[in-house]
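Give me the fold.
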Amino acid sequence: MGSLNDVSNERSAWMGSLEDGALRGGRDILLQGFNWESHKHNWWQNLENKASDIGKSGFTSIWLPPATHSFSPEGYLPQNLYSLNSAYGSESQLKSLLRELQRHHVRPMADIVINHRVGTTRGHGGSFNRYDGIPLSWDERAVTSCTGGLGNKSTGDNFHGVPNIDHSQQFVRDDITSWLKWLRKNAGFQDFRFDFAKGYSAKFVKEYIEQSCPILAVGEYWDSCNYTPPSYHLDYNQDSHRQRIINWIDRTGGLCAAFDFTTKGILQEAVKGEYWRLSDPHGKPPGVMGWWPSRAVTFIENHDTGSTQGHWPFPSHHVMEGYAYILTHPGIPTVFYDHFYDWGSSIHDQIVKLIDVRKQQGIHSRSSIRILAAQANLYSAMVGERICMKLGEASWCPSGREWKLATSGDRYAVWHKE
């Protein structure tokens, strides 16, 4: 573990890097490295075997499932935060994986589940709201009063069924900060993903990031899109939805990016033949990407929306259109493990080709974008003045001999300048 001086020096360097361009200049490409069933498959070893391919494919960071001891095998009901033995593998297997990832220049991203925590013993009211016998041995004061504890009322939404952590308590924040530093310095994680970020105030996320200095941080602020009854068809205008996500990012001081649920919701309707949805009334991308692209972590599927949970799945026959969109556009794109490794070599190779084009043409989270067409069966755009792309069944290509086809597939094509 590094000394306090090491942490202080790193924090100074980290703050300097923010001033030079937050979130690593926007050239990150993420891989979500698990699904809802991954705990059944010797996961740390599986990923270590793929570390070389992950790095060679162009990913800069891999989001790993919760690595600490959990009451549930998936990891989202944490108990002993300082135990790195989980259903995904042992502590030694995890640390071997992290070393191998870093050897291939891929940063490990820890899944930070700090909205709630399963107690070890019954306390006030007969609830499991005490944490006796394990590190961070909190009593009932660490649990919000609205979920069976003696702490203050929650500063966000409740995650029902388990004790929710009261982040307004200074001793709780001090302990969480120490744990986050331990994950960075002892375990070897470099990036953080904050689970269920609606559950506690964003100002606490800001504090945790400032103190623990992850290279990249992203929050899961999953809010429902806007639908109009009685049909509950997705509204065209999702400005209030993306504004709520942007407000959360802003309350973190802009230190934390957020998953762009607005873009996912719109994109998975657009690919069904409603590409007009991909341009807002001002001609910008309609998600968080259109308003604050350097903080928009775009994706088309994750372990909750897809996998065996399937809460909000992307249309399976349009997956490559989705990747053609997010991998050519501003924002920080994320690829889902299942698509990359379980859906066959063709999709794997198509995604890698899109990543290659993105990198070779210098597309990043802040790249300019000019939407050229947004119709029922056609979407086209020029990004960074370096690439043109199209989605849909309609025929389209950029004018000018300088444009060369870079890659194409079912209902998508990408061109770059020679």
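Residues 32 and 336 are 5 Å apart (CA to CA).
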